[in-house]
Amino acid sequence: MPRYTLDTNVYIDAFNHPQEEAALDSFLARTAPHVHLSAVVMQELGAGARTTAQAHVLQSDIFAPFARRRRTFGPSVDAFKTCGEILAHLWRRDGVPYAKRRRSLVNDILLALSCREHGIVLVTKDGDFDTLRPFIRGFSHLRPWPPLATRLERGLRAQRSRRQRR
Q: How far apart are CA 139 and CA 109, in angstroms?
């Protein structure tokens, strides 16, 4: 099974909409051992905590469980270097300097690069990652919620495949 990480927008939707929370819970029930938390997402969620109580909930209910299981990851030094190169390329291509771009673009690039470095698929609702794909080869992202084959379905496919090869 692939390893996944959830983008900030997925968590925020789950915090604000019971239906999205139920979808997230269902996804996690099937994939929890394969889900990791990005340091970039931790920073974005932490910055958005409006109250001390919200910050404590983030720490105890989201950050700490991933940290305890050693399922957190972040961008490397090379990712930061490549991020700068991508931003410079975009400036040359579009004529829009770094200072005039959305601040979240840097986080999006770092998140995509670190996902690629760690072989993790990003689950996101953010369409901006489609525009980054040409700059970050090997980066994978999906919209919520990716279909997951059950163990039985995988077994049946494997059996059919073996029969076809005979």
A: 11
Helix axes 104-118, 39-48, angle to 10 degrees: 150
The residues that bridge with 6 in the sheet, in sequence order, are 123
Cβ(10)–Cβ(123) below 8 Å: yes
How many folded domains does the chain comprise? Answer: 1
Whether the Cβ atoms of residue 14 and residue 24 lie closer than 8 Å to each other: yes
Could you give phi then psi for residue 21, rounded to 5 degrees?
-65, -40
Q: Which residues contact 41 (CB under 8 A, 6 or more apart)?
A: 5, 6, 7, 8, 11, 111
- Label residue 150 by pLDDT band (50, 70, 90): low
CA dist 5 to 118, 128, 146, 156, 159, Å? Answer: 11, 17, 12, 28, 31
Which residues form the domain of 58? 3-165
Q: How confident is the model over 36-77, as pLDDT tens digits?
A: 999 999 999 999 999 999 999 999 999 999 999 999 999 999
We report the CATH number of the domain holding residue 135 as: 3.40.50.1010
